[in-house]
Amino acid sequence: MPVLRKTEFQGEVVWLGHVPAGGSLQAGAVETLDLSLSGDRGARHEGATRPSCVRVKNLYPEGTEIRNVRQLSILSAEEMEATAAEMGLDHLDPRLVGASIVVRGIPDFTYVPPSSRLQTPGGLTMTIDMENRPCVLPGREIEAEAPGYGAAFKPAAKGRRGVTAWVERAGVLNLGDRLTLFVPDQRNWTP
């Protein structure tokens, strides 16, 4: 019996971005991502390992080498639209929030269970780590292009920031590709 259950939910890839290493959080729009087991080649979050950050400070001293489960930032087009509306913007540009992938069609996307998989028909598979909590960095990028709106990002994006993910099976991802959602076949944790 499989431990990952195929759902009826599919998302369409509506935007792809590459965030170059060593620069700002801003992504450049691309039509294809050639994803290796280390993620997006030459990207800010590429690598099998990474130095630990504030998100795991209760586990490790900052800078400790750990597994990189933050290779990709995947957001929902629907949730981005809701965030933009709450901020008072007509549109929230994915490049300003450091998005790798924007999908349309999977409801409540930010709360898809950890360890779920997104898979293309060709077999490229990405494993969801967890919710990507909003931070101030996208707000700075937004503020530079839309003065007066940057500070609104973090509260407006709460519960809508998408997920972080890592590449489980390498492959090419294209605009328009369909991603099928597989979720862990287990009951919710009830301590």
Could you characterize what this model shows?
The model has no long low-confidence stretch (mean pLDDT 95). The protein is built from three helices and 13 strands; from the N terminus they run βββββββαβββααβββ. It has one domain: PK beta-barrel domain-like (M1 Pyruvate Kinase, Domain 3). It is mainly β and 191 residues long. A hairpin with a 5-residue loop joins β9 and β10. The strands form three sheets. A seven-stranded mixed β-barrel has the order 1-8-7-11-10-9-13. A three-stranded antiparallel sheet has the order 4-3-12, with no helix packed on it.
Beta strand %: 35-45%
User: What ranges have pLDDT less than 50 throughout 5 or more consecutive residues?
Assistant: none
Output mean pLDDT. 95
How are the strands of the biggest sheet laid out side by side? 1-8-7-11-10-9-13
What is the CATH fold-level name? M1 Pyruvate Kinase, Domain 3
Distance N to C terminus: 25 Å
What's the total count of β strands? 13
What would you report as the Rg, rounded to the nearest angstrom?
16 Å
At CATH's second level, what is the architecture?
Answer: Beta Barrel
Name of the top-level CATH class? Mainly Beta
Number of domains: 1
Helices and strands: which structural class?
mainly beta
Compressed to H and E, one letter per element, the order equals EEEEEEEHEEEHHEEE
| Biggest pleated sheet | 7 strands, mixed, barrel
Anisotropy-based shape: globular
Q: Helical proportion?
A: 10-25%
Count of helical regions: 3
CATH superfamily: PK beta-barrel domain-like
